[in-house]
Amino acid sequence: MVSASDDSVDCNGNPADRSTTGGWFSAASILVVELCERLSSMAIGVNLVTYIHGTMHLPSATASTIVTNWGGFSFLLSIFGGILADTCLGRYWTIAIFANVHALGSGLLAISTVLPHLRPPPCNPSVSNDCKEANGMQMAVFYIAAYTVALGLGGIKCSVSGFGADQFDQKDENEKAQMVHFFNRFYFFISFGTLLAVTVFVYIQDKVARVWGYGSITVLMWLGVAMFLSGTRRYRYKKCVGSPAVQTLQVLVAAVRKRNLKFPSNVQQLYHTQSEETKYPQNGRFSFLDKASIIDEADTANVESGIQNSWRLCSVTKVEEIKMMSRLLPIWATTIMLWTVHAQMITYSVLQATTLERSIGSFQIPPGSFNAFFIGAILLSLGIYDRLVIHLFEKESGNKGLTNLQKIGLGLIFSVLAMGVAAIVEVRRLKVAKSTSGAISTLPMSGFYLVPQFALAGVAEGFVYTGQLDFFLSESPKGMKAISTSLFLTTIAFGFFVSTLLVSIIKNVTADKHNWLPADINNGRLDLFYGFISLLCAINLVLFIGCARWFIRKKAQTSN
Q: DSSP assignment, residue 335?
C-alpha cells in the first residue's frame, strides 16, 4: 500500500491508499453532484420571479424581493454549513445530507405547482386586473419548499469544492498539478450546469409544465446523490480540525474581554505557542485585537499548567491571522454591489423579457432563458482573456495578465455600464408601452434589446468572480482558507439583500408620487431604478479603487 503523504484517511479511518482512493475517478463523482446542484438551483432561481408574479399573482416588487431574499439566504447559509463541516460532520456527510435536503425541497416545489389548492386560480383575461393573489397557506407551502432548497444549496456549496480538492495529495507534485485541472473543470461544470438550467429546464417549466421542470431536476438531483454515495469507498477524507469561524469569534471575544488591559512594552510577554509552524510579524493595523494575546493573572496559572481557554487567551499567530483577514473586509464590502446587479438579471430583467417579443420563427424564448446571454458572456470573456489577453501581457511586459484586484476593478466598471445600458433600454421599452394599448400582453419590441445588459453584466461577473476567488484565497492566511471562501460567498448573499433593501426604499420613497416599482412594470419607472443602481455602482467603483490602493498584500507584510 502506498499511503498519501498528507493526513488523508479512507472511509474506515485508516491512512488513505493512493492507489485505491482519491484521484480523478473520485473527483468525477463530486463534480457530478455539483453539476446537479448548480443545474437545479439555477433552473429554480432564474425563473422563480415569473412563477411568483405570473402564477402566484404577487406584485413585481414583491416577487423581486422574495427571489433576492431567497438567493441571499441560500449563500448566507453556506457559512453555517461550513461550520458544521469543519467542526463535526466533515465535508462528505455535509454534502450527502444537504444534497438530499436540496432534492427534497425541489420535490416539494414540484408538488406545490401541481396541486390546484396550493396556488391561486388563473387570472380572468376578460376582466382587467382580475387576478387573485396567493393566500397565506399557499405562500407558506411555497416558502417551505423554496427555503428547503436554499438550505440544501448552502450546505453543498460550502463543502463540494474543498472535498474535491481533498482527493488530490498537495505534497505530491503530480497530484498537485491534477488539482489545478480539477478547479478548471469545476468551474466548467458550474457554467455548463447553469447553461443547461437557463435553456432546457426553463423551457420545460414555461412550455411544458412547472411540475415537469421541477420534477425533472429533482430526479437528476437524486441521481447525483446516488452517484456521489457510490464513491464512498474511493474517497479520501480529512479529519475535522475545528472551524476557522469559531477561531475568529474566539479572538474577538478575548479582545473584548481584555479591552481595558494595558498593552505590555515587551511583545515577548504576549502568548506564543511552540507548536505554531507559521509566524507572522506584528503590524499596527487593527491593534485592538492584540489584547486577545495578553496574559493576565487569570491566564498565568493555566498557561503554566498547559491549559488554555481559547475564549480568554489566543496566541499571537492566531491574532495576526484574524488581522490579516480583517484587511480583506474593505475589498469584501466594495464587491457586494456586483451581486446586486446580478440580482436584477434574475428578477426585473426577466420581468422585462416577459413583456417583449421573444420569437425566433415559430420558437419563443422563455423569459428566464435570456440569462443564457449572461452565462455566454461570462464564458466568452474569460475564454478571450485566458487565450488572448494573458498572452499579450506576457509578450509585451512579461506579466501574467491582470492582478486579482485589477480584474475586480475591470468587472466593476462593466457593472456600471450594464446598469446604465439597462436604464437606456428601459426608456425605450416604456415609450413603446405608453404608445400601445393596455390590452396587449406582448409589446411590439424585440426582446433582443435586453441582450446588451445581460452580456455586460455577464462580463462584469466573470472578471469579479474569478478575481474575488483568487484574491480571498491568495491573500488569506494558510489556516484560514475555508473561512475566506465563506467570506467570498457572503458577498453574493449581501448583494441580494442590498437589492431587497433598495427595492423596499424606492417603493416607500416613490409611493406617493410616481411609483417607480408598481405591480405592473409598464406603469412604473424601472429606468430610474436602473439608473440609480448604476450611480451606486459608480460610487462603489471609486470606493473600491481607494480600498485597493490602501490594501497591503500578504507577501509585502509577512516573512513567509
A: T
User: 3-class DSSP state for residue 522?
Assistant: helix
Residue 389 is predicted with a pLDDT of: 75
Q: Are 282 and 323 contacting, i.e. CB atoms less than 8 angstroms apart? A: no
406, 457, 467, 531 from 538: Cα distances, Å: 16, 14, 19, 11
Counting Cα atoms < 13 Å in the Cβ hemisphere of 556 gives 5
Name residue 338's amino acid. L
- CATH class held by domain 328-560: mainly alpha
Q: What are phi and psi of 347, to 5 degrees?
A: -125, -90
Listed residue (498, 372, 504, 497) closest to 70, CA to CA: 497
For residues 554 and 474, give the distance between their C-alpha atoms in angstroms, rounded to a whole number: 8
The single residue listed with the C-alpha cell 428601459 is 426
pTM attached to this predicted model: 0.82
> Which tens digit of pLDDT belongs to each residue from 61-106?
899 999 999 999 998 888 888 788 877 888 899 999 999 999 999 9
Those residues whose C-beta lies under 8 Å from the C-beta of residue 420, and which sit 6 or more positions away, are: 530, 531, 534
The answer to whether the beta carbons of residues 141 and 188 sit under 8 Å apart is: no
- C-alpha cell at position 119: 396556488
For 37, 159, 248, the CA distances from 485, given in Å and listed in that order, are 18, 10, 14
Phi and psi torsions of 363, nearest 5°:
-95, 130
E strands present in 404-519: 443-446
Got the DSSP string for 223-247?
HHHHHHHHTGGG--B------HHHH
pLDDT digits (tens, 9 = 90+) for 307-361: 677 788 888 888 888 888 888 889 999 999 999 999 999 999 999 999 999 888 8
Residue 90, phi-psi category: left (phi > 0), alpha (psi -120 to 50), beta (remainder): left
Report the candidate in 416, 415, 530 with the shortest Cα–Cα distance to residue 462: 415
Whether 54 has a pLDDT exceeding 90, the answer reads: no
Quick: pLDDT tens for 471-502.
887 777 765 666 777 788 889 999 999 999 99
* CA 276 to each of CA 3, 47, 271, 283: distance values in angstroms, whole numbers, following the listed order: 26, 50, 12, 18
Spatial contact of 413 and 491, defined as CB atoms under 8 Å apart: no
CATH 1.20.1250.20 boundaries in the chain: 1-123+130-241, 328-560
Closest CA to 300 of 275, 320, 270: 270
1-123+130-241 has CATH 1.10.150.20 classification: no
CB-CB contact of 212 with 200 (8 Å): no
CB 433 within 8 A of CB 527: no
Q: Counting every residue, how long is the chain?
A: 560
